Amino acid sequence: MSNDDLTPPSRQDPKRHQRGEAKVSRIPIKVQPREPLRKPAWIRSQIPTGHEVQRIRQILRKRKLSSVCEEAACPNLGECFSHGTATFMIMGDICTRRCPFCDVAHGKPQPLNPLEPQQLAEAVDALQLNYVVITSVDRDDLSDGGAGHYAACVSAIRATSPQSHIEILVPDFRGCAEQALNALALSPPDIFNHNMETVPQLYPAIRPGASYQTSLTLLSAFKQQHPNLPTKSGLMLGLGETLDEVEAVLHDLRQHHCEMLTLGQYLQPSRDHLPVERYVTPDEFEMLKQMAEKMGFSRVASGPMVRSSYHADIQAKPLLQDDR
Predict the structure, then answer these.
(1) What angle do CA 309, 314, 318 make, to 5 degrees?
(2) How many Cα atoms are found within 13 Å in the side-chain-facing hemisphere of 251?
(3) Averaged over 144-159, what is the pLDDT?
(4) Do residues 302 and 288 make contact, with C-beta atoms less than 8 angstroms apart?
(5) How far apart are CA 198 and CA 237, in angstroms?
(6) Are strands 131-136 and 94-95 parallel, antiparallel or unpaired?
(7) Is 27 left (phi over 0), alpha (psi -120 to 50) or beta?
């Protein structure tokens, strides 16, 4: 397989979707392009090269799988792929929403691939993963938001890699949360993750089509249904929020029984996306971590390069038991 064949399909064929300016041109609050801020010394990423990076890309392409690492231009791709880990993105590589912070393509999604759960299970087995993170594009075109497909993927992995722990990072299942949670209950994960992303005042600009309260309710509803399974959420910082607003979101998450937390710096994927308003210092991330721990979060990952699934296995390890 040549290096050209390893490029994610959505980046090989840009005519079938929208990215950048074309993607965000129709959101209610327009992005105002400007000269980006200079990155501070603590924002550094590893160039994605080397044998292990190529091996993982080969495994993904061979099984027609996507990773959010590639589709969302994650700055940690080089580090994670080099360590033999990836976050799988199911249900295709085209999202039904136009969030201006995200580099995942927008357009009309393809029908679900019924072979994807088995293809995913084969990739997990090939990578010998003890911890698996599965996320997805938003699929507002599906009656259950794709929750049944999540459950099928979890079930397939359980059948082939029973030793693996599974975390799912789900969309908000707008308009079908009850149906989605019932579908997930057929094959629940070990950890349920749904990101708040930002503070409520910034939702119209950052998460058009989403609802702050809907996201909180989804987390608490899953916890009520599965009281023994940890729930997790995360925020991007540096988009114009105040520290007081972040503290208020953390209080809301605890009131909705969320136990695990990730806090990281927002990084602009391109000049057509939302600009970085400021770079949060490592000291501020440490202060927020201590604040969250005092509120009762059981595990907190907080730092400039932290992402939802970055070192997710390390964060989750103390909470998981092998008595499934």
Answers:
(1) 120
(2) 7
(3) 98
(4) yes
(5) 7
(6) unpaired
(7) beta
Total residues found in the chain within this entry: 324
Contacts of 314 (CB under 8 A, 6+ apart): none
How many Å apart are CA 231 and CA 191, to the nearest integer?
Answer: 6
- Say which residue the tokens 């027609």 belong to: 64
Cα atoms in the 13 Å half-sphere on the side-chain side of 183? 20
Which tokens belong to 70?
């590639």
Reported pTM: 0.91
Residue 65 has which token pair?
Answer: 């799988």
Strands 165-169 and 191-193: parallel
Query: 11 by DSSP, 3-state: which?
Result: helix
SS (H, E, C) 273-320: CCCCCCCCCHHHHHHHHHHHHHHCCCEEEECCCCCCCCCHHHHHHHHC
Kind and range of the H or E run holding 262: strand 260-265
**Do residues 222 and 214 make contact, with C-beta atoms less than 8 angstroms apart?**
no
Q: Are strands 66-67 and 87-90 parallel, antiparallel or unpaired?
A: antiparallel
How many C-beta neighbours within 10 Å does residue 10 have? 19
Residue whose token pair is 């908000």: 172
What is the residue type of 49?
Answer: T
What token pair was written down for 294? 């005092």
- Condensed to tens digits (0 to 9), the pLDDT of residues 222-255 reads 999 999 999 999 999 999 999 999 999 999 999 9
Q: What is the pLDDT of residues 170-221, one digit of tens each?
A: 999 999 999 999 999 999 999 999 999 999 999 999 999 899 999 999 999 9
Task: Record the tokens describing residue 106, joined without a space.
Answer: 């927008």
Instruction: Point out which residues pair with 234 in neighbouring strands.
Output: 262
CA pair distance 215, 171, nearest whole angstrom: 9
